[in-house]
Design brief:
Strand content: under 5%
Number of domains: 1
Distance between the termini: 17 Å
Shape: elongated
Number of strands: 0
Structural class: mainly alpha
Helix content: over 70%
Order of helices and strands: HH
Length: 56
C-alpha cells in the first residue's frame, strides 16, 4: 500500500495560490466570497487531473 503524503501539501499550496488570485481579482464582496469557495474546490480538480496523468 502506497502513501502519498505530499499530495496534501500540494493541495494546500494550490488552495492558497487560488485564494490569493481570486481575492485580488474580486471587484465586490460577493465576488470575494465566491472566490473563497472556488479556491477551496478548484485545486482539488487540478490535483486530481495531474495525479491521474502521473499514474501510468
Amino acid at each position: 500500500m502506497k502513501h502519498n503524503a505530499g499530495s496534501g501539501a500540494i493541495y494546500g499550496i494550490g488552495m492558497l495560490g487560488a485564494l490569493v488570485y481570486y481575492i485580488q481579482h474580486a471587484t465586490s464582496f460577493v465576488d470575494g466570497l465566491i472566490g473563497i469557495f472556488k479556491a477551496i474546490f478548484w485545486p482539488g480538480v487540478i490535483l486530481y487531473k495531474v495525479l491521474e496523468i502521473l499514474q501510468m
